[in-house]
Amino acid sequence: MQICRALLKYGYSNFSLTILEYCDKEKCIEREKHYIDFFGTGTEYNTVKDPSLPSMSGRKHSNKTKQIMSDAKQGQPRTEGAGRPSQQIEVTDIKNNQTTTYDSISAAAKV
Predict the structure, then answer these.
(1) Model-level pTM greater than 0.70?
(2) Domain extent for 26
(3) What would the pLDDT profile of 41-72 be if each residue is shown by its tens digit?
(4) 30 assigned to some structural domain
(5) Residues 9-35, buried b or exposed e (16+ Cβ, 10 A)?
(6) What CA–CA distance (Å, rounded) separates 51 from 36?
(7) Are 50 and 33 in contact (CB under 8 A)?
């Protein structure tokens, strides 16, 4: 959540998204590990040290943790959908220097 707070605090225009490499789905974890090792984990935003270790995927919060999260949300209005506005994204293909604009990160990710 640190990156979310930083985006709101410093503004989306002060961050960029760069695709370092395209690879097959089966190789994603291996390549992510390679880049974490190459660039290091010296930033406060990269909280994953080893992407091959399981995250919350397939695990469940304990009842105690669920209660703590529920208590923290008390009094806050419910939001529809993701609860955040879409942000236009520009993606530049470095092979042909062509830039495409998408209405959201999800739309860019689908392409």
Answers:
(1) no
(2) 20-49
(3) 656 676 667 777 766 655 678 889 888 888 88
(4) yes
(5) eeeeeeeeeeeeeeeeeeeeeeebeee
(6) 9
(7) yes
